[in-house]
Design a protein that fits this description.
single chain; 316 residues; alpha/beta; Rossmann fold; Dihydrodipicolinate Reductase, domain 2; six-stranded parallel sheet
Length: 316
């Protein structure tokens, strides 16, 4: 059986990668509009309502507009924008987040694709919150670095040109210095915390790949957990998962460093528990591709789930 899928915004960074992952599949028929019809409201309306599933790869306002154009009650929508990530009528599309999240996605017709930073943060924070290790009121800091592809076409163009060509020679850049990053609402809502972390994102001079990190003072936590306890919580929480895995504890402790591009072009997220047992300090690290599990890979995974297909199709 073939399913029709319309990617609204398939020429952008995320949409293009989704299309590339789906092209060639015999169970998916992609609906595509000619170039001169991509912004035509009536052409989009027809495509949006004729598809079995729609993936929105649009700015927030355009995503809301697209949803308003859908009148068919049968169309399943996966929105990759920020517009609906904390909306009560939309299911959050992080399949590994809770034991029943897959079932919620499969039963829904409105799925919000998570943000890349939020995916890493929630993957680290929520298991510890559910285990009672992180109290809901606990103040967290989240440090992260992403490749410049996470900033979309404008940032890609900026970093791929030198300063002499009108671009930038920056090797590393912090941003969202007003502490108001657009991923913070979902990071708070789905982590099990009552207040947002102090979030310090940065972009590096490389195309894609991401490290999201939570530092912890273990001695300050109510139960003063050991590093091995944190590893056990993650190992149990993600047992049996294909795309979210936990690095071997002893091997992680022996590592001297970690670079963000290891999982590029995959839909995998890998958790590492680093730390100093004697000093009772931990560095919890999530490694993922900001364009994979952080964007297009997650969208394809959600599409497979909502269409009742093998979750791993088109994904590595």
């Amino acid at each position: 059986m073939s399913h029709t899928v319309f990617i609204d915004g398939d020429v952008g960074t995320t949409g293009l990668q989704i299309r590339q992952r789906l092209e060639g599949r015999t169970d998916i028929e992609l609906i595509r509009l000619p170039e001169d019809k991509r912004k035509d409201v009536e052409a989009r309306r027809e495509a949006l309502n004729s598809a079995d599933a729609v993936i929105l790869c649009l700015p927030d306002d355009a995503a809301r507009e697209a949803v308003s154009l859908i009148s068919s009650p049968e169309v399943k929508v996966i929105d990759a924008s920020t517009a609906h990530r904390t909306h009560p009528d939309w299911v959050y599309g992080f399949a590994e987040m809770t034991a029943d999240q897959r079932d919620l996605i499969a039963a829904s017709k409105r799925i919000s694709n998570p943000g890349c930073y939020a995916t890493g943060f929630i993957a680290l924070a929520r298991p510890l919150a559910e285990a009672g290790i992180l109290p809901p009121f606990w103040p967290l800091t989240c440090n992260a670095v992403s490749g410049y592809s996470g900033g979309g076409k404008s940032m890609i163009a900026e970093f791929e040109k030198s300063a002499a060509q009108g671009g930038t020679d920056d090797a590393y850049r912090i941003y969202a210095t007003g502490l108001n990053h657009k991923h913070l609402p979902e990071m708070t809502q789905y982590s099990g915390l009552e207040s947002p972390p102090v979030f310090t994102p940065a972009v590096g001079r490389y195309a894609q790949g991401m490290i999201v990190e939570i530092p912890l003072q273990l001695w300050a936590l109510p139960d003063e957990p050991e590093l091995g306890r944190l590893f056990e919580v993650y190992d149990d929480y993600y047992a049996g998962e294909t795309f979210v895995t936990v690095a071997d504890f002893e091997e992680t402790q022996a590592l001297k460093g970690l670079q963000p591009e290891i999982l590029n072009d995959t839909n995998h997220l890998r958790i590492h528990v680093f730390g100093d047992e004697a000093g009772q300090q931990a560095r919890l690290v999530a490694l993922l591709d900001n364009l994979g599990k952080g964007a297009s890979g997650a969208a394809v995974q959600n599409l497979n789930i909502v269409l009742g297909l093998d979750e791993t199709l088109s994904l590595i």
